[in-house]
Fold this sequence. Notes:
transmembrane helix, Protein YOP1, transmembrane, single chain, TB2_DP1_HVA22, 2 domains, extended, membrane bending activity, mainly alpha
Amino acid sequence: MADYVKVFQDELKTLDHKFAGNGLLQQFEAKTNLPKSYGVVGAASVYLLLIFINVGGIGEILSNFVGFVIPTYYSLVALKSAQTKDDSELLTYWVVFAFLNVIEFWSKAILYWVPFYWFIKTLLLVYLALPQTNGAKYVYKTILDPITSKYIKASGPRGTENISIKMDNLASHGKTTGFAGHQQ
């Protein structure tokens, strides 16, 4: 048991260092004489409690907010990086997220009967969104890929080289817009 407490305390110290430059949390620390990590953990706990209780349908809003905000942040970071690995991971997340939203849309009447649905969905979305867990990749490989590979076949090598060659070929034949009036 002492090991878990030490790990938790180490994580709290890591949060304190991570949020050292955050002005809002510095104000929190100055006014309450509590570490910044307590504010972060407390806010996350209240957030999850509101989803769990789901008063007035707030659980749905907060759950979808988590499903958009975390991956959107990582997507913006990925767009600014030169790596393509993070792009593939995030594209996988958005495909899985879209799939789950379509399933949810068509089964909302049933899902409302599942106790704590929004809480479970929030935990699932966090699992899918965090790059540390590779949740979206796992769901894609085990569920979506076997289904979609029956209908969607890869059309050659991946990469921007293939796309740029195709675009150059189209441009050299005057097919840049698809509008016949431009080919004079």
